[in-house]
Amino acid sequence: MVVCEHVADAEAMLEHKSFSLTLLDLANGVSLSFLDYASSILNPKPVVAIIGEGSSTTIINALRAGADDVFVVEDLDLSPKLFIYSMKRQLRRALYIEESKRLKDSLERSLDELRADHHAAQHVQQNLLPPRHQTINGLVVEYTLKPSLLLSGDFVDAIEINDHLIIFYLADVSGHGASSALVTVLLKNLTHRLLRNYKRHSSFDILSPVLTLERINREMLLTGMGKHMTMFVGLLDTQTSKLTYATGGHHPMPILSCNESSSFLKGRGMPVGLFEKPEFEEHQLDLPQVFSLTLFSDGVLEILKGSSLKEKENWLLSTLQPGYIESSQLTEMIEEGFEDVRPDDVAIMTVSRA
Could you give all domains of the chain from N- to C-terminal order, each with its CATH number? Predict the structure, then answer.
């Protein structure tokens, strides 16, 4: 407790110390202007004013100057219990205010730490993604990925297996945020582990999109994270121009554009990470010399104009009918007129040969 006999001392205290409760004696030299000043400095902490006479005008002026409660000097002797009750109530209020500020400061520190962690995780995830534009075995592979939050549950990759084989995929992990992004880290690690195993001749699963999906399915179940994903995996042999692919519950299917026509690839399969023994179909397709294959995550359908799924799919087919469109340009066309926050991550990947 601090007692100041002079206004100048009180003013100095207010500038250098924090108080839970302040009493100002207007009956002994404290002015209304100082009450107003002190109340603004101490807000929202309670300030109690003691006045010399109890006219309604004096009380109202004190309240308007910022006092939370007002007592007349002569009433302190007549009703001391009322004064004590008021002080206890104001002290409880001050305690709640201080506790609230402490919790707020703690929450802000936690949020700052969380934001820093998310930015660090975003940096890690972006470093795991392949170059946005690259050429592998004569194929041009490029993509655009726009997360709805800081971290993305969508992920893409293209891996050169040897001088004529390339495996590529687009995955869409359930949910959003850090937990979904963590699965993409697992996915990157697993696919490159499959590549290392191939080079060591210890496993050849990477040469089969179905076996690749089955390996990923087992790994996701072992994590116990309760996450699953949809995924399209393609294996392209540039010597034979043969595409082998499998899908794990992915929609929309990739669009193949060639000879001034476009069509969705056929295929179906269960989501990855839900079932111990899922069923995946493997398909093969002979590709022409010039073609473009465009892969999407389902976030595209969330923002694409159209009153039905069929209309949205038809728009994609007609837009890609002339042939290759760079993913960033296609994303701009899809997002045209869409001003809301994206409800889902959006990923577009193209694999093409001119």
Answer: 7-102 (3.40.50.2300), 126-353 (3.60.40.10)
